[in-house]
Structures
1.
Amino acid sequence: MYAASREASSRAREALSAALTGSDSVAATTGSELFAVVAVLDDQRSLRVALADKSVSSSARAELAERVFGGKISAATLAVLTTAVAQNWSRTRDLVDTLELLGQEALLRAATDRGRIDAVEDELFRLGRIVEDNPDLEQALAARGTSAQAKRELLERLLSGKVEDITLQLAQQAVGRSVGDVGPVFDRLSDLAAALRKQIVAHVRAAVELSPQQREHLAASLQRIYDKPITVHVQVDPTLLAGVVVRVGDDVIDGSAIGRLQRMRQSLT
């Protein structure tokens, strides 16, 4: 985002924080309704352009949003929406993407209030691994010729009753708007859940499944290195032969057998 959109996004997030002062149901409703608003804006180009038109006064844009959505969404959601459209955005897309992000944050806030944020974060990470390991599923969820509704219905059939309701909502929304590979979409959502808990994520590939004690030891070691609470997500990758590869942001720590063999081979050439 350019500077104007970053500032606008910050103001919209402040409005979301102010709106989510009630129970977890307020956060859940706000998240779902923001997703519904995004769906309308995705379908109606003229409306989304009008709501982000900097040549029109901020008050006029807010009034337009209230005329279109007033009575159809809750007061909390409307407050977030009118604040967002009253800002000056560098691009129309930034407005819509930010509304989607705020919807995600609201649902994750609901999961936190319910004490289910750890489960949602883990389910999103595992969903990413399932998609990556199933090319047919990944292709079905990424196909450009398949409608967003069809992709959401596919996830409904696969996940309903097996994951948290909030996990399903987040996954359906993300897949419905994603373009291309969908595996990383779930990783970003999982990382967002960790960030809202003020934690950073370590993506770990291990040659074999790690025991709970090994996970705890690894998390404690990484926390000492980064001086922040760490969430560890582990993916089993037998091609490593032994050991682990840890990625934290742009940092990669390769302690795998295959990594050592590659470094040895390079040193001999």
2.
Amino acid sequence: MRAITVSDHDAGVAGFSLTELPYPQAADNDVIVRVHAAGFTRGELDWPHTWIDHAGRDRTPSVPGHELSGVVAELGYGTTGLSVGQRVFGLADWARNGSLAEYTAVDARNLAPLPVDIDHTVAAALPISGLTAWQALFDHGRLAAGQTVLIHGVVGGVGSIAAQLAREVGARVIGTGRAADRAQALELGAHAFVDLDAEKLEDVGEVDVVFDVIGGDVLARSADLVRAGGTLVTIAEPPKNRPYDGRALFFLVEPDRARLADLAARVRDGRLKPVVGAVLPLAEAAAAFAPGKRIPGKTILRVAED
């Protein structure tokens, strides 16, 4: 099968190589998925398990990518709840070969059934972005109706879903980004927008929840914006500054089959529209994620046709 592999941490996405690899083997409770569409997160090249397995052994050349949508091609021993030929989407395991391949082995618990009326390219934009947004806002941030949330990077793959989810529950949404992002942020449901290059972040005032995907100075300055009892949530890096009377936390997304199914239901009835920025073939993976290439929304690689 064809797959994108990486072997050199320092090379970044420039080290992506389109390679022929053996067909994967299904472990107990696995499924083999014929991948139709896949997502990649730039930060994963800095994750330890991109390069080593759970035992700490080098596993390069490794296949990156952890978001996928496709069709079940094979069931491992003991696998239940899914069937061969079924459309599925979800998360590939962190410490195993990922989704930028024609076939990948995935723990069945990390996959949810995909309705026939949702395109694979849309479904592949949901797993990490959708679960991250939900867990940040509601599991960790405890966002509720009538509260205000500040979402940094609001037109990105994660931020765009977070804005829609927050607006749906009745929260006031303030988004941040660059000047060119303003119109799209408002279309996504943001009530207000801050241009981080030209406007003062501190003018936002106090908010109940800050959800940060940027890190650095933006994250550090955000702690002072959290009102008493509020929460600063980030996926960029552990926060160094904490709200005076609130919580600050860094988290990693966790698989959740039930929540994936819930997100898919929202897509079906029009309550949620993942922003797919570009759809490119697997062979163009390096160019798709090259440094400096900025496309609002989630870039998806199409691996196979329906």
3.
Amino acid sequence: MDALGFFVPLMLLCVRWSAASAAEDIPWTYTGLVGQTEWSQHFPACGGSSQSPVDVATTRTRFDPGLTPLTPLGYDQHGHKPFTLHNNGHTAVVELPDWMGLSGLPWLFTAVQMHLHWGSGGPSHGGSEHTINGLSADAELHLVHYNSELYPNMSAAMTQRDGLAVLAILIVTGEESNPAYDSILNYLSRVRHADQKVNIPAFDIQSLLPKDLRRYYRYNGSLTTPPCHQSVTWTLFHERVQISKAQLLKMETTLYSSRSADADKMLLQDNFRSTQPLNHRVVLTSFSAESWKELSSGEVTAIVIGAMCGCVGLAVIVRFIVKTIRSTSSWDVLSNNQPAAMPRGKEPEKTKETKNDVALKATSGGEKKEHSSRPPTEP
């Protein structure tokens, strides 16, 4: 009886383990027979109530002053050992060394890998997994870490509620190229088909991140691919990272989800999961909406034009004031250089002396002349 009581639970455990292993071996896809709408039938966790990705409605988020800035550890210390780039048929994965990690969370997390999600229609056609206020970005980068304080490895941690921490970076397109992302994109052609791997030069992982790591959204969710374990603490950065249109095109058109030996070549595109219901979860923010109000492009344009007009107006006023001061100063100088007007009826002493001298000389001259013309008196 005791032996039977021990044997039955052991058999049930083996059956559950075999079923789980078989489920993880099922070749899932994003569309088709085992597409994301059917994931929950083969991977029960994918039908859970805390799934990812989600749409972040900023008006429903809650500011949490206890969310401190995250600190990447060793991201810029890549050393000389090359990284491994892998096409797993679902995305491009870069395996990360275990000296890289993440602090700023309740536990220390060790880096495992990073991968990308993208669409197929080019800029403004979507491709990110997370959305903000219903708007998607062109692509998304995930950096995956496991809780190395509580669990020995990724496999053990991924089934635990506090096992994983993933950083999510939204990617948009612009005119300028992003050299940091070329460290991955330039080597995609070497892993064009599924199951191909190649060593690539190590590079600064932190250069892939946005500059502002203080502003982010935080919520509890899951892996966005099967088996969809609900074990992830998500950090979605508010600031986007920009790449060029040519870089996005390379991301969307280089890889295949099929193997090199397969007859049908299938481009690896639209490898993003649809957003999932939040249910009773609350998305926290590390910043308040009042102090970090995001401006629309129209508001930014209005502010720039207003500032330029203000600067021009101020320059005109300053120029007018300076010109007025200069003209006033010049008139004062000219006025000071003019001789003062003489009062009528009064003459300067020096002028009087000159006139007296002239009169005296004239009198003396007349006397002399009169004296010389008088006839001599007779004796």
4.
Amino acid sequence: MIGFLTRRAGAAVAVLLILTAVVFVLQQYSPGDPVKAYLGANASPAAVAAERVTLHLDDPLVSRYGHYLSAAARGDLGTSYRTHRKVTADLGAFLPATFELVVVAFLFALLLGAVFAMLRTIAGTFVRGVLLVGATAPPFLLALGGIILFYAHLGWLPATGRGGNDDGFLLTHSLVTGDWAQFGDGLQHVVLPALVLAVAPAVSIGRILRASLQQTLSADHVRTARAKGLTEVAVFGRHVLRNSIGPGLSMAGLQLGFMFAGVVVVEQIFSWPGIGNYLAESIPAADYPAIAGVTVVLGAVYIVTNTVVDMIQALADPRIAL
């Protein structure tokens, strides 16, 4: 088991290094002069030359990558051309909103996926039908439909923003400090975008988990457990769920990474102040350090998430480590 965990951690580091190398090369060969973009079109040639030396832009490519990797390891992803602030500072301001949105959406996806997989009642069939229809719609269309239904017609949920003071970890801070009014307001604002983000992942998780459960339920050891007189609850809890949860965990890890990638559209529609909006504003301005910084952070989240999921799977089912 220790060897398996070590190999997975080593593979994650290697993939992360490859990601930073690809992002660095694309950033180096992107059109435009980064120094002029940062200093402005009216900067003097002397100022441009001095800044190129400061940024090591005249060094060989391998040396520049070494400087970039060393700076990234210290948490320095460069300076934004648009905001003229450190990219890490910008990400620190925008990432908490995205993180809370994705966490709530992931919890919704797990809950809806479990309902999709396990409930065999009429209510479960209805939920599966609604989720399947929702998963076929593009996220922007699902978001607009949710705004029209739950905001314009029913008036149940707000359509934009985070509510109250939208800085930092709003839900976490209000929950820890016991500010229930702000927590309730923030929860109302996050429900609609989180549901839009959760529908497609819930279907993917639910379908994989449902297929795995059906396969395990027909296994010999489950029939033996029933023949011993165990109740269905005991059979499911002791012999079915643990042997079936591996594929569902794997899919959940993939979908969590996809959620971080899919927040760009959702955050723009709901005016959510996260890294999706930050990225959307950086692309038209050709703000390559910001674009590269967001790419590296999202890639790192995706890699780390799937590594952790692999480790959890190995702990849940030791056969995976073998």
